[in-house]
Amino acid sequence: MPIFEYQCDHCKKEFERLVFAGEECDIQCPGCKSSEVTKKMSATSFMGTSIGTCAADAPKQFS
Ligand SMILES: [Zn+2]
User: From the CA of 51, how far away is ligand 1's center (Å)?
Assistant: First the structure.
């Protein structure tokens, strides 16, 4: 199971989360509960992205 490293954009706290498919938009900082966290390069080669942009990445078929 993928464990990713994150850093909170708000309080700069670093933490690890076990992330299942589809849950990436639900990551919150354990310190300040901010959802503005950045995924860091970790177990996978997936490019680091800001979790805060998840919604913007979704298909906008109804816009
Ligand atoms: Zn935080």
Answer: 13
Task: State the number of CA atoms in the 13 A half-sphere of 24 facing the CB.
Answer: 21
Output the CA 41–ligand 1 centroid distance in Å. 18
Q: How many angstroms does the Cα of residue 3 sit away from the middle of ligand 1?
A: 18
**pLDDT tens digits along 8-44:** 999 999 999 887 777 666 789 999 999 999 988 655 5
Residues 6 or more apart in contact with residue 26 via CB below 8 angstroms:
35
Model's pTM, two decimal places? 0.58
